[in-house]
Design goal:
Rossmann fold; 8-stranded mixed sheet; 14 helices; alpha/beta
Amino acid sequence: MCKQQEGATTGCLVIAGLSGGSGKSVASVALTAALRRSRKVVVPFKKGPDYIDAGWMSTAAGRPCYNLDPYLMSEEVIATSFQQQAAGADFALVEGNRGLYDGVTAEGGFSTAELAVQLDLPIVLVVNCSKTTRTVAALVLGCQELDKRVRIVGVILNQIATPRHERIITEAVEKYTDIPVVGIIPRMKTDIFPMRHLGVTPHQEYGAAATSGAVEQLAAIAEEHFDLQRIIDLMEQRSFTPLPSLSSSERSPDSPMDSLKQPGRAGKRKPVSKPIRIGVLRDAAFQFYYQENLEALEKGGAELVMINALTAQALPDDLNALYIGGGFPETSAAQLADNVSFRDSVYQAAEQGLPMYAECGGLIFLGQAIIIQGKEYPLAGVFPVTLSMSSKPQAHGYSAFRVDRENPFYQQGTLIKGHEFRYSVVEKWDGDPEDLALQMERGTGFQGKRDGLIKKNVLAMYTHVLAPGTPEWAAGLLRAAGVDEAF
C-alpha cells in the first residue's frame, strides 16, 4: 500500500457523465494521468460492472483499479473496499458508468448517483457539448435538481469546437447552476478511445507503446485544459485509517478461507506440503478479470500463474486449478485456433479432472468452435458447443442465478449475483438445458434461462462474478483447487 504523511488526507471525487459516450472515460483517464504526472498517488475506482474502463484507469494510475458496484456489493462491503484501497493515497478517483442517474429502476437504483450518495462524495459531471450551447446548462440544472442529495461540484465540457463555443456554454452553466466549469476537452480529429460494442476498446489491443502514448496525450490535455488545482480544491478530503493486512490465521469471518471450512472439520490449519497453483489465462483474448477476484484467490492461499493462451505451448503441469475469465476471444480466434498444442493441453487437463472455472469468453474457448464471418475456428473442445458472434447484444446487464445442480464450485441452493456481457450466439449444442447447473433468476444465461455447463470438474457460464460481493466464488475455486486440504 502507498505511504502518506501522518495527518494527510485523501482527495476523493466521482467523475460522472450524462450518458454512455459522454466523455467521462476520457476525462477520468486524463485527470488520473495528469495527477500521477505531478508525482501524486492516485488510486482509481470504477463504478461497475466494467473491465475495460477499469483497465485504462489502472494504466493511467500505474496501480490496480477496483470496482464499486451497489448491485453486486452491499453498502458495508463498498465502504470497506473504498477505505481499504484509498487509505494512504493522495487521491481516490471513481469513474461512474452510463449516465449519472441511470440504474435498473425508474428511481435510479444501483446508479452512479446512488454510489456517490452512499460514499458521500462530490461529483464532477462531464457533458458532451457537440452541436449544443445553452441547452447544456439546462441539462446540468436538471441533474442538480433531480436529487438534492447529489453534490455536483464541477462540470467538464467535452467536444468543444471553438473558444466561442466554450465561452457561451461556460457562461450559461455558471449563470443558471452556480456550478463552475473546471475544464474542457477540445474536439479532436481522431478518437483517442475508439468505441466498440462494449464501449471503449481495451488497452490490451493497443500495444504497450500505443497505450502509453494515448495516456500521455490525455494527461497533456488535462494539464492544458483542466483547472487541476480547482478540481483538487473541490474534492472531498478524507482521513482513512488503513485496515490491517491479515495473516492466514487472523482472517476475518467473511474471508474466502473461512468459507472453506466444512462442517465437522477442524478450523486449525495444517502445514501445506506445496503451494496451491491456480492458472489464469490472461492475454489479448482473455482480459476481463476483476483485481479483487485475483486478490481474493491470493489471500486464500493460492499462487496465481499467468498464462498467455496465444503463445504458450501447453498448460503448466503443476496446476491445481484453472481460471478463464472473459474477454474477446473472437478477435484472437485465428491465433487461438492455430495454437493447437495449447488447446489440446486444456482439453486433456479437463479430461484428467483439473478444476476449471470459466466465464463468458472462457466458456467460448472451452467450446468446440467459433464461427467468425462464415469461417469456423476450432477451440479447446471441452464442451460440444459451436458459437458465432452477433452484432447485437444477446445479454447485457446485471444477472442473478440460483445453483440447483451439483457442481465443483458452488453449493446447491446458493443465490449468486453477477452480470453478463454477451454477444455470442449458441449455434449448435445437443445438450439439455435442464442439465445446466444454474437457474437464472435475472438475465439470460446459456440457454432456456439456465447457465453453467458442467463436465467433470469444469464449470463454464456466461455470468461474471465480483468476489467482494460473492465470497462463495473464491471459496469454491480455492476448495476445488485443494486449499481445504490445509484444514
